[in-house]
Amino acid sequence: MAGMKSLVKDTAIYGVSSILGRFLNYLLVPLYTSVLPAASGGYGVVSNVYAYTALILVLLTFGMETGFFRFANKSDEQPEKVYANSLLFVGGLSLLFVTVCMIFLGPISSLLEYPDHPDYVGMMIVVVALDAFQCIPFAYLRYRKRPVKFAAIKLFNIVGNILLNLFFLLLCPWLYVRCPDAVSWFYDPDYLVGYIFVSNLIMSGVQMFFFIPELRGFSYRADRALMKRMVSYSFPILIFGVVGILNQTIDKMIYPFLFDDRQEGLVQLGIYSAASKVALIMAVFTQAFRYAYEPFVFGKNKEGDNRMMYASAMKYFFIFSLLAFLAVMGYMDLLKYMVARDYWEGLSVVAIVMGAEIFKGIYFNLSFWYKLTDETQWGAYFSLIGCAVILALNVWLVPRFGYVASAWASVAGYGIITLLSFLIGQKKYPVDYPLKDMAAYLVLAAVLFVLSEKVPIANVPLRLAFHTLLILVFVAYIVRKDLPLRAIPFINRFIK
């Protein structure tokens, strides 16, 4: 129980920072969709470029985050030595990447079909290299159980990025009209998309200064034997990490190429990406859980077999994922205003995207059987299968059905690999998951969702009240079945 309390506490800190940070970052979506109309395809460009950077980030980190946790928690290894070698490897790889890409910036920009804007590509090359290197100090903060500093740096970066975006996209255009001499020496009103990348570059550079304490006091001496073992362990994680990020971004990377008219593809991609942001809560919850759960599991593995605790963690993750789903769908009448009106046509994909996020979260929970048994090659197999499914369905169906097909392709890909991981994992590392209890929650959530969608209530306030009642029914079932009020210390004080 003490272990679960520790997990809940860390998840709460990471969760608050992630939820607050993602929410603040999410405020950029209405900004982007208002200054970049859907018909311009500008938001599609942003989504497309960031999809590539997400893939490169995984390549440059090389699975060393998980490798660091695994080796730092081994009794026969020195954590500081493991950390220093992780920094040397990822830092060296990132520096090599920047050097090569800057030499061939022109051909790379043309290959990505941005020949007129190599500056976009160049800025994001530097950003992704900085972010990759910083992943290791962030992992070290998690290992040292310093979630407060972790959260503070993340929030500073996000708030700074938002302020810079507001400066370039709102304040500068206003000043350019009313007082052009004040900004005309550096501001170009036609460079709106570029300033999004400029803001990101500035904050990634500034963030490095916060890691100075985590980069000092170590002996930066490469241990070839240790690094070889870490690379050997991390390489399969890199493979399924690459394929895993492709599962999330492949549609956004190839989308413009699936249409005869590239501009039309960028327009649809912008609408799809903006609408998918409404599913933010599910992604935030999954990420917060991951930040706390990964060091928790590897740390607990040193103490012995904790399979019952892993089963409980899966159950509660699933329960609160369903609650998040019901909340987002129940308050869609309010959440839709987070994107500009000309993007609303894409809101039909929100429920589908959230379904894919639930599968992704379950798959992450299941993935620890092959990480704990050092059979990480299974992660590569699963990821390759999922990527093949998603890619094939996108190429086959998107030209006919548009972005709805992309959303369903993600559900199919994650659903298949979740099932495969469960079936094989139960043979390799059996865990007695409470499947009947989870199924009961799933059925209840499905019934409540159908009621919220099918009961016709024209009046918006009344419809929101009805949806709130349905959500409270789900919460009441959680309290009655698995989270009695007496088990919550703060509330227990008031219950006699």
UniProtKB/TrEMBL annotation:
<feature type="transmembrane region" description="Helical">
    <location>
        <begin position="313"/>
        <end position="332"/>
    </location>
</feature>
<feature type="transmembrane region" description="Helical">
    <location>
        <begin position="120"/>
        <end position="143"/>
    </location>
</feature>
<feature type="transmembrane region" description="Helical">
    <location>
        <begin position="378"/>
        <end position="397"/>
    </location>
</feature>
<dbReference type="InterPro" id="IPR002797">
    <property type="entry name" value="Polysacc_synth"/>
</dbReference>
<keyword id="KW-0472">Membrane</keyword>
<feature type="transmembrane region" description="Helical">
    <location>
        <begin position="403"/>
        <end position="423"/>
    </location>
</feature>
<feature type="transmembrane region" description="Helical">
    <location>
        <begin position="192"/>
        <end position="212"/>
    </location>
</feature>
<dbReference type="InterPro" id="IPR050833">
    <property type="entry name" value="Poly_Biosynth_Transport"/>
</dbReference>
<feature type="transmembrane region" description="Helical">
    <location>
        <begin position="344"/>
        <end position="366"/>
    </location>
</feature>
<feature type="transmembrane region" description="Helical">
    <location>
        <begin position="270"/>
        <end position="293"/>
    </location>
</feature>
<dbReference type="Pfam" id="PF01943">
    <property type="entry name" value="Polysacc_synt"/>
</dbReference>
<protein>
    <submittedName>
        <fullName>Oligosaccharide flippase family protein</fullName>
    </submittedName>
</protein>
<feature type="transmembrane region" description="Helical">
    <location>
        <begin position="49"/>
        <end position="71"/>
    </location>
</feature>
<dbReference type="GO" id="GO:0005886">
    <property type="term" value="C:plasma membrane"/>
</dbReference>
<feature type="transmembrane region" description="Helical">
    <location>
        <begin position="83"/>
        <end position="108"/>
    </location>
</feature>
<feature type="transmembrane region" description="Helical">
    <location>
        <begin position="435"/>
        <end position="452"/>
    </location>
</feature>
<feature type="transmembrane region" description="Helical">
    <location>
        <begin position="12"/>
        <end position="29"/>
    </location>
</feature>
<feature type="transmembrane region" description="Helical">
    <location>
        <begin position="155"/>
        <end position="177"/>
    </location>
</feature>
<feature type="transmembrane region" description="Helical">
    <location>
        <begin position="233"/>
        <end position="250"/>
    </location>
</feature>
<keyword id="KW-1003">Cell membrane</keyword>
<keyword id="KW-0812">Transmembrane</keyword>
<feature type="transmembrane region" description="Helical">
    <location>
        <begin position="464"/>
        <end position="480"/>
    </location>
</feature>
<keyword id="KW-1133">Transmembrane helix</keyword>
